[in-house]
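Continuing from the previous page of notes. For each protein in this section, the sequence appears first, followed by its structure tokens. Read the first protein now.
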Amino acid sequence: MKPELTLHQRTLTLTRFPVRKNETLQAWDAADEYLINHCHAMALDPQRPILIINDNFGALSCWFANQAPVTTVTDSFITQQAITNNLNKNNLPTITIIDCLADLPVNPQLVLIKQPKNNRLLSWQLQQLCHLLPQDCVVITAGKVKDIHSSTLKLFEKYLGQTKTSLAVKKARLIFTAVNKSLAAPMPQPTSWTVPDHDLTITNYANVFSSDSLDIGGRFLLDFIPSKPQYKDIIDLGCGNGVIGIKAARLNPHANITCVDESFMAAASCRENAQLNLASTKNFNVMVANCLDDFNNQSADLVLCNPPFHQNNTITDHIAWQMFCDAQRVLRPQGELIIIGNRQLKYHEKLNRIFDKVDTVGHNDKFVVLRAIK
């Protein structure tokens, strides 16, 4: 049975994306409900845009879709698919869905923000809004009480304007911010640093994992990327800033490299890093996608992956499992999947279920590097 969100006598049927059999996680939270209930009696101009930022699976986008022109901003391809899916399920009008690097609509009347997990992204978005918003725009942010700290509120005060909070309801809280245009400042540039051991210069946009240094898992995996003349097609799955795919391209200049991530900011970072670190990007491609949904069966020789173990604030292994299954489908016979993971995650148990052979090619106190052969 699909979950339903019932508020003020309206019912929406909402599902998470990708849709999975026996799904037990609901597609909204108490912060969504609090925000919707607060805005229920608000008088809205049907001609003036509503801007929704970081809507996870479409609860906010669906609720406001037929009340005014809606633009939803998200860095997640999966979220875009979830919102579109839930709009269709509820027979709601089409809305505009854009990524975080796109231009925002002018003169919005209402901005609704779901607090992101990443404060770097939040700061970036608040600075972007300060440039855009008119003084009369209402800005409301919703989040979990445990995630709203005094340091969080200082970010709103610093980058957007005077801020106050609501009482807590169901462990959720609202943040109200008045736009102060005098705080507008030049947008920050992506962070950049070097990796001398591998002769790399890396640039990261705000929502890319480990924004000001190379994450320790990715750094460890760099030492185990193979170079073989038989590799024709190599995939960096969940590429982030692209450092793994770039190193693979250097070691295998004869191969086609495809980097895939569901984050638009990650894909943008990866493209810029390829330009910075490769003599030629002719055989280097970057895609935004849900794992390997758009790849043909038996179309790759090597898949490299540093899988995440969370979706938004939910700790889960279903993303890693989808990555492993997709890799098994996409690899040619005798193709290889090389992954890195925390030792306690026991990824070898999952890989042994779908691959013919799994062995350990590297390890330290924290990580293990596994190779699975189809």
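Done with the first. The second protein uses the same format. Note its length before scrolling.
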Amino acid sequence: MTTFLVEKEPGFGEVRPGLTIPGKIDKMGYKGVDTTELIMDGLRVPADRVLGGVTGRGFYQMMDGVEVGRVNVAARGCGVAQRAFELGVRYAQQRHTFGKPIAQHQAIQFKLAEMATKVEAAHAMMVNAARKKDSGERNDLEAGMAKYLAAEYCKEVVEDAFRIHGGYGFSKEYEIERLYREAPMLLIGEGTAEIQKMIIGRRLLEEYRFQG
């Protein structure tokens, strides 16, 4: 596999001979990032556009990009979860039922405790994966674990914050509604949970190979 750099003019339609960019894809979340397709039909690229100047390195370049991407998605999951927790713990102190803030009800305190613990655990694993990547060491195991845990915990923390908000969480007037739409992308970006578990399982068997 060989990777090429392909330049294009801004905009949509046929942006250069052989390369067409259709219109934006309308998404449930991640509105701040445009998403579209690349349609290549008869596209020709000069040989000097080979990434790194050496052919046959595409697979390794892609895998390196995927590892960075998984740490990136983990970091985004940590950020969304952190914000969801902040919104949840704030609203729990503002909303009153039975004469006191719902934050004083044991059920809500348990939920907040679980949310905060998940935020901290995901953040620690993400930082560990990022540091290993920065060091130049192999980090596909750590990146896979961080992406898997942070994305799953993000979904759970956001949903708990959504539940704490009650009916208000369904209203676009409250920020938690947007976070509820953002979280699903992290579950599938840079590989689903099933893909991450396959990678983690294979790497663990390499690392802890039984010599019998």
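What the second structure shows: The chain has a mean pLDDT of 93. The longest strand covers residues 13-16. We return to this in next week's lecture.
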